[in-house]
Design goal:
heterodimer, A: 282 residues, mainly alpha, two-stranded antiparallel ribbon, B: mainly alpha, 0% strand, elongated
Chain lengths: 282, 130
């Protein structure tokens, strides 16, 4: 039986996994809901609200610790929110079959930050210019925070602001279409295009995904895809799991986290592709 | 010490936004938990795959808020609390953006006041139009 207590338990586990792997909760929850027989569009719409909860709870600490940059978040928000509204509108009208394949393809972008892909594509082709362009200078997107591990002030200045915005539009589009935060993609754009420090990228991405999800939720709300009793246990579970995961993160080794990340993403890709192929067959 | 010396960190805004996010999550979670507890005692029970009408059919977010304030056409029982939780969640980032606009306007940072205004306009339009 797929009941509220079962979904709370799953959401707690997903919250822990999402927090440890940096994938967030929604990209893991959507495929799980689909396995339990929830229609794809309903699963996508209902997980959107859980993204707002995860984003808000993590932003409490990230803002207090001065790691999330409000100015950069607001500038990038223009692009992600526009993309999310467009993405959610597309989801309303297209067949769910395409969503399975697009979901699997987008999960593949999670591998962008690691291994050969990072060395070849990101570091050689997309590495940000050392020169500060005129638009970035005009926006003056800089900041600083005290790194607790190194115990010193880390100062930074965002570059390639225009291309960073374009990258965030794509992230927003995918987030709106798939009911996910697209956090891995957003962090990649901020680190490799804007040239922000990793901690700032993660924290600012967390701040942005809540607002992106808000825009997409409004679209799903109006077309009646938002299942309240499906959303409720996920909000409670992922929030609790996120807190537990956050506490476990410092104790986990990098190699364990990397193996966990690859395992979870690979399972999700295979599962969504399988679902898409079965849907095409019928 | 270094943090205090860093002049471009918008400390006041960050503190206010942090409080808004914290309060929003607490209020939303409380409503949702009450809804789940009430759902346990209702006729629908806790099974999520039973045929039930748990979807909101409103033309847009602001009409839903208006209905909640006016007490008209409201969902009953557990769904009312979950709806209140959902509305609180959606309002949380919107309030944070509104607070940013007020901050940048007060500090006469017109560039970021304009950027924040654009974000707020997109978000409000999205909530009002759909």
């Amino acid at each position: 039986m797929f009941s509220i207590p079962v979904l709370i338990l799953i959401s707690i586990l997903v919250g822990i996994l999402g927090s440890l792997t940096g994938l967030g909760g929604a990209s893991i929850l959507v495929p799980i809901l689909v396995i339990f027989g929830i229609p794809m569009k309903e699963a996508v719409a209902s997980t959107m609200a859980t993204i707002i909860a995860t984003s808000a709870s993590s932003s409490v600490f990230n803002l207090r610790n001065k790691i999330a940059n409000v100015r950069i978040a607001l500038y990038l928000e223009i692009f992600t929110v526009t993309g999310a509204i467009l993405g959610a509108t597309v989801t309303k009208v297209i067949s769910p079959v395409y969503l399975y394949f697009f979901f699997a393809a987008f999960l593949l972008t999670s591998f962008m930050r690691v291994g050969v892909f990072r060395r070849i594509v990101l570091e050689r082709m997309l590495s940000p210019s050392k020169e500060l362009d005129r638009f970035s200078r005009f926006l003056d997107l800089d900041g600083g925070y005290v790194d607790a591990v190194r115990d010193r002030l880390i100062e930074y200045r965002a570059r390639n602001a225009f291309w960073g915005g374009m990258g965030m539009f794509i992230a927003g589009l995918a987030a709106g279409m798939l009911g996910i935060g697209a956090g891995a993609f957003k962090v990649t754009v901020q680190e490799n295009v804007l040239g922000l420090p990793p901690k700032v990228s993660s924290a600012t991405s967390n701040l942005i995904i809540g607002m992106t999800a808000l825009a997409a939720t409004s679209v799903y709300l109006s077309c009646g895809f938002l299942n309240l009793m499906l959303m409720a246990p996920m909000v409670v579970g992922t929030a609790a799991g996120g807190i537990i995961g956050g506490k476990l993160l410092n104790r986990a080794t990098d190699s364990f986290l990397r193996i966990l990340f690859f395992t979870v993403v690979s399972i999700l890709i295979v599962q969504m592709l399988g679902k898409g192929i079965v849907s095409l067959w019928h | 010490m270094a943090l205090i010396l860093y002049k471009k960190n918008d400390s006041r805004l960050e503190t206010v936004m942090s409080c808004i996010f914290g309060l929003g999550v607490i209020v939303a979670s409380l409503f949702v938990i009450i809804g789940i507890i009430l759902s346990h005692h209702s006729h629908t029970g806790l099974d999520l795959l039973k045929e039930r009408s748990d979807f909101i059919h409103k033309s847009n977010f602001f009409r839903l808020v208006n209905a909640l304030i006016g007490g008209r056409n409201l969902p009953k029982g557990p769904l009312l609390f979950v709806t209140l939780g959902m509305v609180s969640l959606v309002l949380t980032p919107l309030l944070a953006v509104a607070a940013s606009f007020v901050y940048f306007a007060l500090t006469k940072n017109l560039k970021f006041a304009f950027i924040t205004l654009v974000v707020m306009a997109i978000l409000i339009t999205s909530l009002a139009v759909h």
